[in-house]
Amino acid sequence: YNEPRDALDLYTPRFVKGCGATKVGVCPICIESPSRGGKGEAVWLSMKFSAYNYHLQYAHGISSVSARPFSPPVAFRTTERQNPAKNERTSIQEGKCHKCRKWILVESIKNIDIKVKELYWWKHAAVCHQGKQMEGDDDFFLDDEIYRRIQQFL
């Protein structure tokens, strides 16, 4: 068992095995049941080569700094693109960052579907937010029996 930073830590793997280059950890999100937002399976990822870090940040949007989800954009807008190429979008959606106040692309300029729609935002957030949550952005836990039991000990 690997001790988390606190009871509500969404980043730290609870279970690890191996050491050095062979050290792997179980994703604490994927192992949860589908009813709680997981896959219901143990997904083991390399700790040494950042596979674990990339998975948590870019598959689940969990910050390695804060161990909490990245804050979402504070606003959205759609911008028309000038001279898009054949397989590119004619308009693109952007999200405004609470920290740097810039408008960030939240989708690819290519007109294709991607597996993780939030990927572009999470890549920006991982670099920009540095663990800073937007004020009032603290209701990301599923309010169920497990959460209420944990709250009794905090």
TrEMBL record:
Pfam family for this entry, one: Rua1_C
Entry's transmembrane regions: none
Transcription regulator Rua1 C-terminal domain residues: 6-129
InterPro entries: Rua1_C
Domain of life: Eukaryota
Protein name in the entry: Transcription regulator Rua1 C-terminal domain-containing protein
Originating organism: Boletus edulis BED1
